[in-house]
Amino acid sequence: MNDMIIRTENAAKSYTTGTVTTHALRGVTLGIPPGSFTCIVGPSGHGKSTLMHLIGGLDRPSEGSVFLDGCEISTLDNSNMAKLRAQKIGFVFQFFNLLQSLTAAENVEIAMMLAGIPEKEQASRALKLLALVGLAEKADAKPSQLSGGQQQRVAIARALANDPAILLMDEPTGNLDSAAEGEILAILRSLHAVGKTIVIVTHNDEIAKTAENIIRVMDGRVLS
Ligand SMILES: Nc1ncnc2c1ncn2[C@@H]1O[C@H](COP(=O)(O)OP(=O)(O)OP(=O)(O)O)[C@@H](O)[C@H]1O
Ligand SMILES: [Mg+2]
């Protein structure tokens, strides 16, 4: 288990709103090997995004532990958690989450600023990453001038800004048509081929079929 790049031990998460407590995750133990292509699947509302937020250090478990590269992240304070996240993890979300007032290139550069990549390297590195996702000619476009698939490719370039070992994606093709989805999948496969650890929450069978690892989440638990 110690050679896993991501690991959880009895990780649980409850949310309390007023008098109602929701047990979103009920004690999950899992390991994700480095360099693997893993899909997290399961019905809506059963805890997939919650699990993703815990393993990405966006949130802390109510109980149990989460380890990233052997380091227990569930006990880090906010600032150390943010630092570790910036170094090791790139996130891609269903709704792209690009900053609308910035160009494609600037959206990628902003992620580099947060991780302290020297300013003079930021612009050239952003262009390289946009070229990698096939968008070199759209570097100066604002998100509103891009298609959904193109916006998602900018989001992937942004996720790669700091050359993270791990890419965590929550329904990255949920809002795309099948052509755009195919393009995104091809990019993910090429990233997997160069050794990135890819973890995707998806409802899409085509993506899940290509995974090396499938984690099935059901009612806050992981089915083995
Ligand atoms: N911030 C929150 N506050 C209260 N309840 C929450 C919160 N986030 C999630 N939940 C609840 O936790 C449960 C799991 O939610 P989660 O978002 O992990 O589901 P999911 O499997 O990602 O679903 P989907 O496929 O629809 O995205 C749901 O019942 C949800 O309503
Ligand atoms: Mg979700």
From TrEMBL:
<comment type="similarity">
    <text>Belongs to the ABC transporter superfamily. Macrolide exporter (TC 3.A.1.122) family.</text>
</comment>
<dbReference type="GO" id="GO:0005886">
    <property type="term" value="C:plasma membrane"/>
</dbReference>
<dbReference type="InterPro" id="IPR027417">
    <property type="entry name" value="P-loop_NTPase"/>
</dbReference>
<dbReference type="InterPro" id="IPR003593">
    <property type="entry name" value="AAA+_ATPase"/>
</dbReference>
<keyword id="KW-0813">Transport</keyword>
<dbReference type="InterPro" id="IPR017911">
    <property type="entry name" value="MacB-like_ATP-bd"/>
</dbReference>
<dbReference type="InterPro" id="IPR015854">
    <property type="entry name" value="ABC_transpr_LolD-like"/>
</dbReference>
<dbReference type="InterPro" id="IPR017871">
    <property type="entry name" value="ABC_transporter-like_CS"/>
</dbReference>
<protein>
    <submittedName>
        <fullName>ABC transporter related protein</fullName>
    </submittedName>
</protein>
<dbReference type="GO" id="GO:0022857">
    <property type="term" value="F:transmembrane transporter activity"/>
</dbReference>
<dbReference type="GO" id="GO:0016887">
    <property type="term" value="F:ATP hydrolysis activity"/>
</dbReference>
<keyword id="KW-0067">ATP-binding</keyword>
<dbReference type="Pfam" id="PF00005">
    <property type="entry name" value="ABC_tran"/>
</dbReference>
<keyword id="KW-0547">Nucleotide-binding</keyword>
<dbReference type="GO" id="GO:0005524">
    <property type="term" value="F:ATP binding"/>
</dbReference>
<feature type="domain" description="ABC transporter">
    <location>
        <begin position="6"/>
        <end position="223"/>
    </location>
</feature>
<dbReference type="GO" id="GO:0098796">
    <property type="term" value="C:membrane protein complex"/>
</dbReference>
<dbReference type="InterPro" id="IPR003439">
    <property type="entry name" value="ABC_transporter-like_ATP-bd"/>
</dbReference>
